[in-house]
Design a protein that fits this description.
Layout (H helix, E strand, L loop, with lengths): L27 E5 L23 H11 L3 E5 L9 H9 L4 E5 L7 H9 L2 E7 L12 H11 L5 E5 L8 H4 L7 E3 L14 H11 L3 E5 L16 H10 L4 E3 L15 H11 L3 H16 L2
Parallel strand pairs: 1-2, 2-3, 3-4, 4-5, 5-6, 6-7, 7-8
């Protein structure tokens, strides 16, 4: 796919509303992206979508409306390993923001040092093939990369469909650094919570190896808000290991295939999935501070 073929995404809802239950002090949105301006930070030619500009100022407005004092910017696939847009945002708000970068497997330690000084605390690896949608886990390369970032206290975040890896817990046994999985495991809800890969993820969390992000339920289902068929997966994750969960908005919600959600509605889903106030605060504040070094 060439850049001219990459479809343009719908824009995010520019009018977020506050959550019905206020977020606690120092709450953290642990998964979001800044995109553009495209004229300054051009997108990767091999991207599969083209996002509208989604600025740091707009993101800050959303955070303030939700009551998030902290946030983590994750490098989106449209930039591949060009982290400049994310790093520019981190430089403008170094106290409030942390980052997760995308780097080549042969990244030099000096580059990791530079990214760490800029506020990066992890590296993202996209395991989903952009052409086939299927995943391959390059364990040797991942082990080598993890060994490089370990001295900096970083983690490795995977964008992957866990249902494709029924032996995930055995494959990642003894991995050098913590691992993080986005989007509730990123498996179709039709697979059900009995899926072998999802249960391997639960075991990794219980063993203290993995973290999972309660993010982007709309990526698991074709149903509309409040995405009721995702509830069982969220409940299973919370029941298995609440100390290994973080929450994120997934703003600006690129390539959403259902109606564009309001971020207030997504924040309300967390209260539905985690009705206990103390556990919800742990996920929003304490867990995020531990994982990202706030």
């Amino acid at each position: 796919m060439t850049s001219s073929d990459a479809p343009t995404c719908a824009p995010h809802d520019a009018h977020p509303r506050p959550p019905k239950l206020p977020f606690p002090a120092l709450a953290c949105d642990c998964h979001a992206h800044v995109c553009g301006p495209a004229a300054r930070y051009p997108y990767w030619s091999e991207r599969i979508y083209t996002p509208p500009d989604a600025s740091l100022a707009e993101f800050r407005h959303m955070l303030d409306t939700l009551g998030c004092a902290r946030a983590v910017l994750v490098q989106p696939s449209v930039y591949d390993t060009d982290n400049r847009a994310m790093l520019a945002a981190l430089a403008l708000d170094p106290t409030r923001l942390r980052g997760v970068a995308v780097v080549p497997f042969d990244v030099e330690v000096a580059e990791i040092e530079r990214l760490h000084a800029a506020g990066v605390r992890g590296v993202r690896c996209n395991i989903v093939d952009l052409k086939t949608g299927k995943g391959v886990l390059p364990l040797d390369a991942l082990q080598a990369l993890a060994t490089k970032v370990k001295p900096f206290g970083w983690h490795v975040e995977f964008l992957m469909h866990v249902d494709e890896f029924p032996d995930l817990d055995r494959q990642l046994a003894g991995f050098p650094v913590p691992v993080v999985f986005g989007h509730l495991g990123y498996l179709p809800t039709t697979k059900g919570t009995g899926d072998a890969g999802f249960n391997a993820l639960l075991r990794l969390m219980k063993d203290g190896v993995a973290w999972t992000k309660l993010t982007a339920p709309y990526r698991l289902t074709a149903s509309a808000l409040p995405y009721p068929d995702t509830d069982a997966f969220a409940f299973a994750l919370v029941d298995a290991a609440p100390a290994r969960l973080v929450w994120g908005s997934d703003w600006p919600h690129v390539i959403v295939k259902t109606a564009m959600p309001n971020d207030g509605d997504l924040a309300d889903l967390l209260a539905q999935w985690v009705p206990d106030t103390a556990t919800r605060a742990r996920i929003l504040v304490d867990n995020a501070a531990t994982l990202y070094g706030f």
